Fold this sequence. Notes:
heterodimer; A: alpha+beta; Butyryl-Coa Dehydrogenase, subunit A, domain 1; Butyryl-CoA Dehydrogenase, subunit A, domain 2; 3 domains; 8-stranded mixed beta sheet; B: alpha+beta; Butyryl-CoA Dehydrogenase, subunit A, domain 3; 4-stranded antiparallel beta sheet; 10 strands
Amino acid sequence: MQSNLSHSIQRLEPLGRWLYDHSVEALWERDTRTLPRYLRQRRRAYRRFAQERIAPLALEADRSPEVYDPRPLLAEAGRRGFQSELLPWPLGRMPYRALLDGKVFAVILKAEEFCAACGGIGLSLLAHDLGMGPLLLAGHLPTILRWQWPINRANLRGDVRLVVYAITEPGAGSDMEESAGAARARYTTTARKVNGGYVLNGQKVFISGGAHCDYATVFAVLEREDGSPARVDTDYTCFIVERGREGFRAGRRERKLGQRACDASQLFLDDVFVPARNLVGTERSGWALNRNVLNYSRGPVGAIALGIARGAAESATRFARETRLNNKPLVAYQEVQLALAEMWIDVLAMRGLVWQSARHFLPQQGMAAASKAFCGELGFRVANRAMELMGDHGYLADQGAEKAMRDVRLNQIYEGTNQINYLAFVESFWESDLGPGDPARG
Amino acid sequence: MLDAEERRAVEAMLRRFAGRIEAELLAGEGADGDLGRVPRLLTEARALDLVADPSPQAPGHELGVWGSHCHEEGLGVSLLTLALLAEACAGFAAAVHAQGLACLALPASAGRAGDAPAQSLPLEPGMLLGAAFTPYYGIPLSTRFGQEGTGLHLVEERGKLFLSGSSHFLLAAGPPRALVCFARGPGAFAEDAPGWVSLAVGSGAAGLDLQEVGQRTGLRAAHQAHLRCERVAISGDQILQTGKAARRTLAQVLGCDWLGQAAIALGVARRALRDSRAYAADRYQGGRLIEGHAAVQLLQGTAEYDVAVLESLLGRHAAQPLASMQPRDLLGWACAARLAVGEHACRAVSNCLQTLGGYGYMEDYGLEKRLRDVSTLRGLHGAPDQLRLYLNQLRRGIGVADAW
């Protein structure tokens, strides 16, 4: 059939032939070709790193996360500039074109490539960008020069400086990510103003990279001077806390379903004094800062799901190509082709939304939430479809699909559950598209 | 069939034992609990007559899961038992299920005239068995990939019989001491060559190799292995059944395998829903209990619907004696129930996990184990697309179906 089609195309007029794209080109290359040159180069560099450095570690890091040490890979990624892409040269390694295009486009490309190789190791590398988010988005140049620039320089030397983001608390997860909840959140982490700085108390949970961090950007509710009850949405304040500060320690590392190479740890703050220079942004601006960090991070979280789903689709495709039954490869059977097509089309749809949301000049709440929630759902569907296609082989660890299923399930939960992201989408487009007023007031 | 009072008594006993499984197996830390305690719990389950036994003298032979009572009294008690055990631990339920399937494969358990247990294989009480009937990919009996049979072949050379080939993903309660194998046999043994032959063989036989499948997603309390045979000598008295009789038994084993998996998935889903409700009644968000949020109600409502679908599917022919059930009806029912695992049980568990947010993803709350277990059932002994194709074959009356 293909041969007949080729002959038929040759019979077209020259313009007709030119208008007919019948080139044989891999999906990945085809999509890469649509990017500007500086992003094409980045995408190829990320993939090379993922294939050479991440993929060989993936299964063992998942199997024995307690012995996996992320620092050698963090050092290598740092030397290659992958850990300092939120600022342009000389402060970091963000491409200048990104100042005019989408700010997080390079980050979403990185997230897809790293997580196609391993969701857990990918997250352990990407958690740093999230931790650095408040330092940039506070919009305070001295903060950037005092903290972000030296951290970038150290990472570029291969001297690992890992920053993690700490908002979630034992009794308040979703409340820290949604307008209606924030007003009534049962928070535990507080800051009290003292001479020369602040004293922090409380506990954070599920902090990605918390066990290995050098710094944490910690959000705490700043007590009011008049003694009236403080709230997350009016008194939230961000501080950078260095490892080694008295009273600051990492606690238990959670045992979790997937993305196991990246720890999710407790952080304890017991009368931790931080000087005034550790304040990130201004006092009581933390709620806006937190929400904007989520606007910047949810697109990349969508890309993490995209990458994991692509990894699952690749595993299923490999299985279908290599398995022979009745003297022909599994992929030659129609039902297998249909299943593969479903998976890959889902992957393309995820990439379409992730790239589209990242093309906005600034990451926007509704688009970021859409990208995150959509990819979380579809990623899980793709991983399950991959397991199904492989039958019994699908639940074997060495085939990769079951790990993808476990890994990508987290994408419906962190950075706000999908339900919270749907509500964030509604809130974002409430006044423009979906209804009058502010749902938080309702 | 149990009357209402008997059913309540059985349920109460099963719930007590399920509580014991949780206390014994899952109390400590670790993704799947202390798996070293599984053999002891199996012994206790055997004492309660929950585990099928190959020896006709043992009570479990009749009363255990997939025991001989199924032939006259239907599958309801076995399905009920598996679902309730799975509420505690799906892997343990799978172990009990696997032992039952292997016993079901022994023709003596069917009590049919003319069939005899293998003379060369003493069936001791409490002996762990495995049933080898699953191919590398696809479904035995299906015309899609089942044409190659299980991958096990019985060949006759100069008057001697040899078993060669492989069978995959064999489930058992522990390392089995003997296997009941379904193989393609030579014309002399099959009425419709190359037909089916079932035979019994000790797991220590020369040329027989059982290898554990390696790390897998869930159901880790059960044992799972690949079987490879290279010219394993078989004597005539190891042959259990041939031709249509062997095929009929294989259909029963296959049907009960899928139904048992669906029952286990139902138990997992029910338990996930119970855990989700308890959490939602205790956790606050936005100043009120999360059970008051529509988002949580939708997740739980969908899970409730999914559980109802599974219950309805499993109850469809549960009262019908196995002996009177046409293989085509049994397989069609079982196939649909097993398909519902992927679509309904998995969704129910995933939705329940979602209601716990980050805690659902962590081992401590048990939902992550339930998702792993139910996801394993999604592809166990048959990829869903292959099940759909097979269901269609059965309905169209082609392939395997034409034999009945």
